[in-house]
Specification:
The complex is a heterodimer of chains A (about 350) and B (about 180).
Chain A (H helix, E strand, L loop, with lengths): L1 E6 L2 E7 L2 E6 L3 E4 L5 E4 L7 E5 L4 E4 L3 E5 L4 E6 L1 E7 L2 E6 L4 E6 L4 E4 L7 E4 L2 E6 L2 E6 L5 E6 L7 E4 L7 E4 L3 E8 L2 E6 L4 E5 L5 E5 L25 E3 L4 E6 L2 E6 L7 E5 L13 E6 L2 E6 L6 E8 L4 E5 L9 E2 L3 E5 L2 E5 L5 E5 L1
Antiparallel strand pairs in A: 1-35, 2-3, 3-4, 4-5, 6-7, 7-8, 8-9, 10-11, 11-12, 12-13, 14-15, 15-16, 16-17, 18-19, 20-21, 21-22, 22-23, 24-25, 25-26, 26-27, 28-29, 29-30, 30-31, 30-32, 33-34, 34-35
Chain B lengths: L8 H8 L4 H14 L7 E4 L17 E3 L6 E5 L9 H10 L6 E5 L6 H20 L8 H9 L6 H8 L2 H7 L3 E3 L1
Parallel strand pairs in B: 3-4, 4-5
Antiparallel strand pairs in B: 1-2, 2-3
Helix pairs in contact in B: 4-6
Classes of the chains: A mainly beta (about 350), B alpha/beta (about 180).
């Protein structure tokens, strides 16, 4: 891994197939893989970039939304808030009517939907939207509701440890925190307790439920504390191989969905003598067998980046090998694409390394 | 083992001797709460108490707890919770992925929990537009705001309306307490 490029004053970047977008105070552009600027957007002081793909870039000032292709403005409307996009389909919200519409980039037409509430979304053959205890499945063609799932009252609540001696436990109400995705006809979701639930994609029937094993007990003398919500937002689904996995702190965990026992395995990687000493505090991105992650302390304090191999179950590389270039002023975003590692630090500098 | 082995503890002791009353008061408030927490759970202490109403210069944190993900505690001995400094608050928000990782603990001798939450609500409403600004314009950006306040809270206007509902108030101000 060696450093090939650095950009300053970057507030946003996104890597796509054709190259990548960077956006900041002074620069606002689309670059190809040779880092030649292909297209420069107009600077829009009150707008910020909220999304982009190979074909367009989306700006919003929270009152209106602008969508640009690489050559022209293709959508500009007041009173529409940006919600999300998937390929050529945009969901926007009409602030005045308080309704959610979809905007087709190709035809440039709006269509109404019957989506009532907004939350985290996921697209497969259906559109899934979750909010707290609720999850709804919509058709991608006409946005009619297929099914609605609600967490059963009280069933998945957990007793969570607090740090106070006089009140060591508190009851936490169950909520959905993340939609993982669909594998073999089952939609997997994560609750705030770390529990993973599988719902039949076409009916919403609960067919899978598993909570992380609480392997280590709290040890106040020891810094390495295992919490039952170890993976939580870091939980991922490898759709190709049917593996739910995640990395947080000193622990890697996975469930092999192809295996009939679907056992929840936790690996304590912090005590492995052959691994490099780094813990995952900042999730980056995963690709194939590798997880790209970071370790930060606070704000702009020195931070490092590492690569964890899921097959070998160990850290295979840390940015320590780069010397001073491998120490960052905090971490905001880590991405990896086409053998290049992208690291945006807390001082708005984007560092690019090549393998 | 007690908190005295933790990084930053010596700063606590020197701040207790600081002739400024505001500083002594702030440190006492923190120490009073810390004695209820088991030794060994804290990984870092930093007692840079900034004065109310003044911009935060060093923007450090008070307490970082052990564990993953880490949790942060900030002690404030203010009579008006809406006066907390924004840059320091933004630093905390950047560090966490859920509001449950953060605690702003006000001095119960000056404010009860409800008053502290009301003050913080005022603070969030006043600064909603700043929070949603992009990172290099002094905010934390839309993505972080959605992660912390909810995916449905896609604009500062929505954050303000959410704070005005009882349910939203309870949910968003979970990180505010008085002890």
């Amino acid at each position: 891994m060696k450093k090939i490029k650095e950009f300053n004053n970057i507030s946003f970047f996104k890597v796509e197939n054709l190259g990548f977008y960077i956006y900041g105070k002074a620069i606002n552009t689309f670059l190809n893989n040779e880092f030649e600027s292909v297209f420069i957007m107009p600077i829009l002081p009150n707008y910020q970039v909220v999304g982009c793909s190979d074909y367009y870039i989306v700006f919003t000032d929270f009152v209106s939304t602008l969508i640009f292709s690489h050559s022209e403005e293709i959508f500009n409307s007041a009173n529409y808030g940006y919600l999300t996009n998937h390929k050529d389909l945009f969901l926007v919200e009409n602030y005045q009517l308080n309704t959610i519409l979809f905007f087709d980039i190709k035809s440039k037409l709006f269509n109404s939907t019957n989506i009532q509430h907004w939350g985290q979304s996921y697209w497969s053959s259906h559109l899934f939207i979750q909010r707290k205890k609720h999850l709804t499945s919509y058709s991608l063609i006409n946005f009619t509701t297929f099914w609605h799932y609600e967490l059963p009252e009280g069933v998945y609540n957990v007793q969570r440890r607090t740090r106070y001696l006089d009140k060591p436990f508190e009851e936490v109400n169950a909520e959905i925190v993340k939609i993982l995705g669909v594998y073999s006809g089952v939609l997997y979701i994560v609750l705030n307790s770390g529990r993973i639930i599988g719902l039949e994609e076409n009916t919403g029937q609960e067919v899978f439920s598993k909570i992380e094993p609480d392997q280590l007990t709290l040890n106040y003398e020891n810094e390495r504390i295992y919490t039952p919500t170890i993976l939580w937002l870091n939980t991922q689904l490898d759709v190709e191989n049917g593996i739910i996995f995640g990395l947080l702190g000193d622990f890697y965990a996975e469930i092999d969905l192809k295996n009939s026992s679907k056992e929840y395995k936790v690996y304590d990687i912090g005590y492995q003598s052959n691994t490099k000493k780094i813990k995952c505090t900042n999730w980056g991105v995963w690709q194939g067998d590798e997880i790209f992650f970071g370790e930060t302390n606070f704000a702009k304090e020195p931070a490092r980046v590492g690569i964890f191999n899921r097959k070998a179950k160990q850290v295979t590389w840390t940015s320590d090998e780069l010397g001073d270039e491998g120490v960052f002023n905090g971490l905001r975003k880590i991405d990896y694409a086409q053998n290049k590692l992208y690291i945006l630090d807390m001082e708005s500098t984007l560092h690019i390394f090549e393998r | 083992m007690f908190h005295n082995v933790v990084d930053g503890f010596s700063q606590v002791i020197s701040d207790l001797k600081n002739p400024l009353f505001a500083k002594q008061d702030g440190v006492c408030h923190a120490v009073n709460d810390l004695k209820n927490i088991p030794a060994g759970t804290i990984s870092k202490l930093d007692m840079e108490f900034e004065e109310p109403g003044k911009p935060c210069v060093k923007c450090t944190f008070d307490v970082k707890e052990n564990g993953t993900p880490p949790k942060y505690r900030e002690y404030k001995s203010y009579t008006d919770a809406s006066q907390i400094p924004l840059p320091q608050f933004l630093n905390y928000l950047n560090e966490i992925t859920s509001l449950s990782q953060l605690k702003y603990i006000f001095n119960a001798k000056k404010l009860n929990s409800q008053q502290a939450k009301e003050g913080m609500k005022m603070f969030l409403k006043t600064n909603a537009a700043n929070l949603y600004k992009s990172f290099d314009n002094g905010g934390i950006g839309l993505d972080k705001c959605k992660q912390l306040f909810g995916d449905e809270v896609t604009s500062p206007q929505k954050l303000i309306s959410k704070l005005d509902t009882q349910e939203g108030f309870n949910e968003l101000l979970i990180f505010v307490d008085a002890k």
